[in-house]
Input
Amino acid sequence: MATSPAKTPTDEVGSKDGAPDYCDLDPFHVSAAGHTFTFYPHGQDRLKALVELIDSAKESLRVFYYLFAGDVAGTMVRDALVLAAQRGVSVDLIVDAFGNDAGAAFFAPLVEAGGSFAIFSPKWGTRYLVRNHQKFTICDETRVMTGGANVSDHYFAIPADNGWCDLSVIIEGPVVEQFTRWSRMLSAWVANAANGRTSQLRRLRDIVKDWDGGDGPVRLLVGGPLVRKGHWAWVFRKDLVAAKRLDTVSAYFSPPRSFRRLIARVGMRGEARMIMAGKSDIAAAISMARLLYGQLLRARVKIYEFAICKLHMKLLVVDDASYIGSANLDKRSFRINVELMVRVEDAGLAAKLREMIDHLQGSSEPITPGWYARHSTPLNRLRWRIAYWMSLADYRISKVGTS
Output
């Protein structure tokens, strides 16, 4: 059973270009396939829920984040982890080396309180290119919070205060056991990598390749470097092959050509709708996506750009299957980063998430063939293509602007 999303009036943001006012949705609950899902589209609700989850822990907290900043929100979450460790909770925190904006010294109070802190890929080399892009907190092995949001003020603020449009979910049910098992494997890998063992990249690939998320209606799917079969994207591909309907919200769009073809085929035989970023933390990401719009528009895929604030959400709904997690529709998420996506096969949940996408669409600009014809000038296409090729290895090396 699902409760209807409600708007939060205090979050209203008027668009300067005349687009409709936008407000984040209140949390909403869905019971599906023996699990309970509580979704948090509103940034302040995400922060409150994360701190409350940490505060409620009685036995253990296993925490993995790509980015952890030493700002107001980061300090609040760190201090909650410190208090948990002080009251006897086993606290294990891992952050990515590239995304650790706070610095190791910031987490010293957690270690002093008896918690554990480690860095994913702590040394320069091949492993540094492989990033832990996951975001999740497991509480007492019974509840998990996951999604697209990192720990930083940007991910919890309202749009009027430069908050980012994102989505997190707290899940209760059997899939939490899969999260716990997965986190233990990653923790062991990080410990071995810190000891300087040279075979750890191969071992990481084996962990991802051998991962079994089961075949039930709720599955934890993962991804990692240069792994194809068994990867979350491998399952997503199988869903796309015969799909009649596809709805996506993705902050970054540059999937491999084979996936672009599959998406186009969904548009030709059924209905496909994609919410893209009109504002982003990385300007080149918009250019990369726009370079690829032409093929999709010719296949009758409906494209919208959300520009009320920066878009960071990762949400895929294919027929009755929903994917929620850390992965973008880009090459890094498909082929390099360590990612996770929770796949839920339930028509009621898919319908509720499509309602949220409807809400985003209402405040987004339609990208029509006419729009594309006006904007895809030879100069713009050159800019888009430069951004595309420069950013294949890493978005952040490209400073090409958008048009």
Notes: The longest strand covers residues 90-96.
